[in-house]
């Protein structure tokens, strides 16, 4: 077999990746808003009805003593007729409400003024929000383009503008190291030699395992060799 030599200059790179961050996140007749079918940890609450009894709590709205039945919501007590949406004044005694900046809103008004819109389905988000790619998503709408599973707050990779979970990204697009056969992952230093891609720590002499990074090397049967072992017969 012929012996080839050459000086390599490793090219270093980092596989691009992005990480999601999770944040908690809205009067004319309008249809009743329907929660997203896959919302988790919804922000919508319901007031608790308390019958008249020995307790005479103070109303959080008017600061007057409540005599008779009352509502409990957000750890406070309310006259039933004073627990209303801060915007449209709709009674919240028997419907869902959302707390925002110390005030309470019906679902209609919360959706209109506060709730973010999901980039995928364009529906309002009333639960946990995924913030990724400078957009907001329902947790089940931000998914791997390959396996269609929610990425949640795990690391993901972009390919042609589509997000992929780590496993599918390396399976579909990853480059394997010719030395160890493991994928070259985000942040790994790598170099190209002999027509293959290597981790910088895997490009070593096939006989003595000394590093060949930035060194003159020889090859035999596609095996890199240092100068000392360039004419070794048994590889």
TrEMBL record:
SMART domains: LIM. InterPro entries: PDZ-LIM_domain, Znf_LIM. It holds the Pfam family LIM. Residues 57-115, 116-175, 176-235 form the LIM zinc-binding domain. It comes from the Eukaryota. Keywords: LIM domain, Metal-binding, Zinc. SUPFAM superfamilies: Glucocorticoid receptor-like (DNA-binding domain) (SSF57716). PROSITE patterns: LIM_DOMAIN_1, LIM_DOMAIN_2. CDD domains: LIM1_Enigma_like. Gene3D superfamilies: Cysteine Rich Protein (2.10.110.10). Residues 1-38 are annotated as: Disordered. This is PDZ and LIM domain protein 5. It comes from Goodea atripinnis.
